[in-house]
Every structure is written in structure tokens, then in C-alpha cells.
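So, can you check this one?
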Amino acid sequence: MKLYLSFRKNRDFAADLVILGPFQRVLKVNFVVKDQKTVLITTGKWIKDLEIYPYCSLDGVKMKVSFEAADNYIDLFKSKYGSEHFNRFFKDASRVVVLEPFEDDPSYDRRILGLIFDQVVEQYYEEINSNWIQRYMRERTSEILEKYAKDGDKILDLGCGPASEVLEIGKRVVATEADVSEAALKKSREMHKGNNDNTEWVLIRGNREISGNFDIIFSSYGYLNLEDPNRVADLLDKNLKEGGYFIGTFMNRYGFLDLLLSLIQKRKKYIRERLSGRLTVNDSRYNILSFPRSPTIFERFRGMKKRQLRGVCAVIPPYNYEHFVNFGNKVRFWPSIDRIIGRIPILWAGSDYILFVYQKVGRVRSV
């Protein structure tokens, strides 16, 4: 008998697996049970996610993940699903995923995020240099940073990544480059060798927190999509000078063009997730759980005064739509139109990303 996941809806043959933590996604999996253990044959790229963050949920039951050799379970899989199914999908499997219930609910931390980004630094660096939309987005933030930064300013770059706007502006600043990824910091040091005298690279993992008194705290395209806003408020309160600036970008929950293009492509689940402010891996452009924010999220911070809000990619398609992106690269006036639209009240609030400048005027608290 042939038993394929697409043909069998019986829960005894295909269970719902939810990978927890930063890799949140839902999968249909084949499984067997032996000695009170639930066993999965390892297939798909998601296995690497479980290696980094070994927790999941199977049909609503929280499970801890371990790995074993496949030899002891092959006959069980063949007996349940048939030899033809096994040979078609699992023939070369050398190990299995073993699931056992657990009580605690672990939360992923900066160490986990750092391990994730360590694996993709080179790929990310290649993308931001080869994709014209990513270059355009970085140009926009660099212009704002250049406007507000002064020679001698102390600037904290949160989630600096391998290529830092702070170290590329035409000002002599004292920079602290901070990231959860050790590989990203190493790449950044290589790419900005000429700035080593005035730059400190800081790995923020585990319980290590930033400590300083900065004129500007900058964060662009990444960190604010992941961090808890309350922790951001606390960081600004302790480390940003009175009168200093909080400058950066974050993914807009209500990115109109992205939502429209997703509607055309019938990506209804993605639309629901983006509007809810919680993007899982299944339908997102990202490979980890992320949190699109409302356009005015930082206006809820007491002690911060709005100076500028602009949109980025209001009429330029988000960079995950390859067909539109390639077309847009040929339309040279699009960036100019995008800049104009991004400054118009109301219209900027529908951009894919929000570019902001806030100034500290008192003690910072999130409300």
C-alpha cells in the first residue's frame, strides 16, 4: 500500500509538528512510536533548525528533541508506511529525530539568534551588495544618520551586521558595533579595517548588556524586528544621552505594497500574520520568527520626542518579489518617487519599512 502525506489525512499517519522558538513553522510529518518515544525520519532543511533549537510541539504536546541512529527504527517505518514509501522518501536517512514530552517552556535568547546568524553572514553580505533595493534602503538610512551625526559623536550600532552604515558615513565618530553574531562582528572588522582605532566590536549574547553614554543609538533593518520594545526602552533610558538621538528602521506591519502583492499571490496566511505583528517562518521572507511593528510604535515611549518619520519602499516592491524587483531596477525614477511618497503624511505609513528619528527629552519608559 502507498501511504503518502498528501493522500492520508489520518492523524495516526501524519502529525502536525510545530517547531518552536525563532524557527516557528508548521509541518506535516510521518512518525512511529517506540518505548514511549515519538520518532521522525530526518528529512528537510528544518532538521538544522532543531539542531540549534531542540524544542517543538507535536499535535499540541511540547516535545524535547534528540537525535539517534536510524537503524533501530527502519523496520518500524517500513511496517507502518510500506517499503515503497520508505524507499521513496527516507532511503538515505542515517538518523532519526526522537521526541519526548517536557514540562518547561524555554524561550530563545540572543545566544540562539547569534548561532543562527553565524551561519548566514556571508550569504547576507552578498545579498546586501548584490540587491539594488537593499543598497537603496541602506542609502536612505545613511543619509539620515549623516544628517544627525557630528564629528566626535559616540554612536552605538545595534545589530550592526557585517556592513555598517555607521562606519561608512563621512564623519569621524567613536563607534560601538554590537551584534549577537560573532561571525558578523568578524566580517565587520575585516570590511572596516580603516576604522579600527575608533571602533569597539561588542558581542551581545547571554546576559551581557550594553553599557555606555551615547550621542546616537542606531539600529537598521533587523534588530528591531526581533527585540522586545520594553528592552529597547530600557536600553535607551540607560545608555542614550539627554538630547541624543534614536535613529533607525523597522519592518512596518501595514506595508501596503507587500500586502497587495501578497493578496494577488493569494498568500492569505502571510497577510494575516503580518497584520497581526507575528511572522512565522512558513510564509515569511525571513528564516526566523519576526515581529512587524506598527508605524508609530516608539511614540508610546515616554521621554522620546519624534523628529522624523519616513517611509522606505512605499512604491518600490519589497525585495522578495523578484519579478517586480528586476523590473524596478530598469525604472530609474522609482527611487525618486519613493523618496517623495515616503515623506507625505499618511502615505509613508504604508511603506514596507519605517525610517525614524527620535530625540531623548527625559527618562524613557514604554507605555
Summary: The first strand starts at residue 15 and ends at 19. The domain at 15-101 is CATH 2.30.110.10 (Pnp Oxidase; Chain A). The two ends are 60 Å apart (CA to CA). Residues 1-8 have pLDDT under 50 and may be disordered.
